[in-house]
């Protein structure tokens, strides 16, 4: 059992990378350190969290990394459809990649992205027809099961200083999904959207599934996320993370959390019965093991002071509305990872973070950001 002195030493000696610093050869880290009693209870440590995400997305072929992905506790890989084979090799999910993922017990979900990240592309009134045609071709080729969705990207900021431009953007999004809806009628496939809340609000009567992107500042994002109707299915909480289980080409993946009140968000395979597609993981635990910054920004520190009263050594920040994974909880502090990994990046004050991911601070084009407090040096 670790005494108070060794416990404090371990916290002080742990570097930002998770390695023990020089001069601290005897330091120990123990995720289950005893609760301290007495006047200074600030270092009381709760049980550490251990809830890696269960859903990733990748714009590259990750079939040969399927075993590594499954070993990380991931259950679903979201992959792409696009025009023909996509703008680069490996973008579109193939039969062989699907077979490799399924062989490791993974299932998939699908997003269609082909120049869906800028408003100008949606000025082409034929885009919805072209995109839905290609989406259905790929779905037929892979034998995508009925009643499963294809998410279509509307991954661009709707907002503009000119209200008429905002309305034009919304009208174009509406026209795009009307064409998709027309094409999907009678196919037994569902329609989802990947983007931000204001785009969704323009087409709620045409959509079955909602995947919120990582851009928490996009118009309507926080309102849609926090809406009591709980309509969102997925939230992309981190993007462009370099991981060893990413593709050979880029080693980059994005991570996502599932709305615990939804559970099913469109995942499927061609091997197992539908009942096996549902998440096996505790989705509430994943949500509860993460937090948003409610400061602009929140500070990340390298260590807890020797007296256990404050944090010291600022090493970074967490932008307003951005999220982190909580690795350990103390009475007034938490240790955090900012890349969804298991290695501690540093420490944050609990007061600068939300309790969990159930509500995102209002960040719509700085509406909440402007009034958020800034962190101090501790």
Write a structural description.
- There is one protein chain.
- This protein is an alpha/beta fold and 378 residues long.
- It folds into two domains: 31-50 and 290-371, SH3 Domains (SH3 type barrels, Roll); 55-288, Glycosidases (TIM Barrel, Alpha-Beta Barrel), CATH 3.20.20.80.
- 21% of the residues lie in helices and 21% in strands.
- It has eight helices and 14 strands.
- The chain has an eight-stranded mixed β-barrel with strand order 1-2-3-4-5-6-7-8.
- Helix 4 (127-142) runs parallel beside helix 5 (163-184).
- The model is unreliable at 1-42 (pLDDT under 50).
Class derived from helix and strand content: alpha/beta
Helix content: 10-25%
Specify the oligomeric state: single chain
Task: Return the average pLDDT rounded to an integer.
Answer: 86
List the secondary-structure elements in sequence, H or E.
Answer: HEHEHEHEHEHEHEEHEEEEEE
* Major beta-sheet overview: 8 strands, mixed, barrel
- Compute the number of strand runs: 14
Q: Looking at this structure, what is the CATH superfamily of the largest domain?
A: Glycosidases
Cα distance, first to last residue? 30 Å
CATH architecture of the largest domain: Alpha-Beta Barrel
């Amino acid at each position: 059992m670790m005494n108070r002195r060794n416990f404090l030493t371990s916290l002080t000696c742990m570097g930002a990378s998770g390695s023990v610093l020089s001069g601290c050869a005897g330091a120990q880290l123990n995720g289950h350190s005893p609760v301290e009693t007495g006047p200074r209870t600030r270092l009381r440590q709760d049980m550490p969290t251990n809830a890696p995400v269960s859903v990733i997305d990748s714009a590259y072929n990750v079939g040969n990394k399927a075993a590594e992905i499954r070993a990380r506790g991931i259950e679903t890989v979201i992959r792409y459809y696009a025009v023909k084979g996509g703008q680069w090799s490996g973008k579109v999910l193939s039969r062989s990649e699907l077979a490799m993922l399924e062989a490791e017990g993974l299932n998939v979900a699908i997003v269609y992205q082909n120049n869906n990240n800028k408003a100008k592309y949606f000025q082409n009134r034929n885009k919805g027809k072209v995109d839905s045609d290609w989406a259905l071709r790929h779905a037929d080729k892979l034998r995508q099961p009925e009643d499963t969705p294809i998410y279509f990207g509307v991954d661009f900021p709707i907002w503009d200083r000119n209200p008429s431009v905002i309305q034009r953007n919304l009208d174009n999004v509406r026209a795009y999904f009307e064409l998709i809806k027309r094409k999907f009628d009678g196919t037994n496939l569902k329609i989802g959207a990947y983007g931000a809340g204001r785009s969704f609000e323009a087409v709620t009567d045409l959509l079955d599934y909602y995947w919120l992107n990582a851009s928490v500042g996009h118009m309507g994002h926080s309102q849609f996320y926090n809406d009591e109707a709980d309509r969102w299915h997925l939230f992309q909480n981190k993007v462009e993370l370099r991981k060893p289980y990413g593709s050979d080409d880029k080693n980059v993946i994005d991570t996502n959390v599932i709305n615990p009140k939804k559970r099913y968000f469109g995942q499927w395979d061609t091997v197992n019965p539908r009942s096996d597609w549902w998440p096996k993981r505790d989705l509430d635990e994943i949500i509860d093991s993460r937090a948003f910054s409610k400061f602009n920004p929140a500070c990340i520190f390298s260590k807890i002071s020797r007296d256990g009263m404050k944090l010291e050594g600022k090493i970074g920040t967490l932008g307003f509305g951005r999220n982190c994974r909580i690795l350990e909880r103390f009475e007034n502090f938490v240790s955090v990872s900012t890349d969804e990994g298991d290695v501690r990046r540093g420490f944050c004050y609990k007061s600068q973070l939300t309790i969990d991911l159930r509500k995102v601070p209002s960040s719509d084009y700085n509406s909440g950001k402007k009034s958020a407090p800034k962190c101090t040096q501790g």
